[in-house]
Amino acid sequence: DRRLIVVNLSDARSQARVSCPWRDLAGRCWRLTDVLSGAVYERSGQDLAGSGLYVELEGWGCHLLTFETGTPEDVA
Question: Is 50 exceeded by the pLDDT of residue 76?
Answer without folding.
Answer: no
